[in-house]
Amino acid sequence: MSESGNRAICGKESQSLPLPPCEPIDFSSDLVKALFFAVSELQTGRQKAPSTPAPYHTSRFDELVTSIRTARKLIAENRFRIALQPIVCLGDNQLHHYEALARFNGGDCQSSFIGFLEKADIIHEFDRRMVNKVIQHISRMSAEPVPIAVNLSSTSLSNESIIRDIEGAVRQDSSLGMKLIIELTETVRISDFAHLNNNLQRLRQLGVKTCIDDFGSGSTSFQSLTDLKVDIVKLDGNYLHKIDFGDDRDGFLSSVIKRCQAMGARIVAEKIETGEQARKMKAMGVDLGQGYFFGRPEMLTCDNG
């Protein structure tokens, strides 16, 4: 995406859409969160059970409390920025929408940090700030912007307060529904598909498009395609690069594409890096492409935090 494209995204600002303020952070729960985090590490084998429990619990527990409080402070102060990466139609290479990506510490993408937030059970705090920031950006644009997709965890999309915030913003500005895409990330196992699907349909009824992110990553399953009605399915790029694009020997990709087509969902292939990959994905029936071949993520120059 060129510099001129970035300026086009930012455009001429208009009055931003007022949103409910994010809830103040109550740090009193950090001790409990750190305790559950430490127990989880021991259960999964990431940390060995100590021969002398007290030193372990003192050092590791204190470290976790400090890390959780640091992360929550970063979130509360909005100390992250947004980068946008283009997603294009493989049929004509025209821009379809952007994906909003969080950037910390000078522009690095820290998936490990997001993973930490999920394990510490504070991902909903970050997701609330992230979606609010994207909505504020969309609402500031006087011209009709290209739609922007934002990632939300299944935990956040099961959170009634976050759903109501999004519903409230769309009801204040009905055009927002056509400009916002919600991508469901499934790095945390979904416990209640029916409740989650109900929330997704509430957003879709307001015009908001929904997407399953990183399908095929190992965290997702065909139950997601069966039990969740969405508009877009994004195929995991790491999986795509492990298969033979010309053969698809295990038939997984072909079966996913057929399933998506049957349910009327558009398909995005991630991490496309060459024209040959783009052509092969198009030939297999994939609608949209994302990757360095089409454009790298670029920081929003008008994102003031």
Automatic annotation (TrEMBL):
GO terms for molecular function: cyclic-guanylate-specific phosphodiesterase activity. SUPFAM superfamilies: EAL domain-like. It comes from the Bacteria. Residues 61-305 form the EAL domain. InterPro entries: Cyclic-di-GMP_PDE-like, EAL_dom, EAL_sf. PROSITE patterns: EAL. This is EAL domain-containing protein (Putative c-di-GMP-specific phosphodiesterase class I).
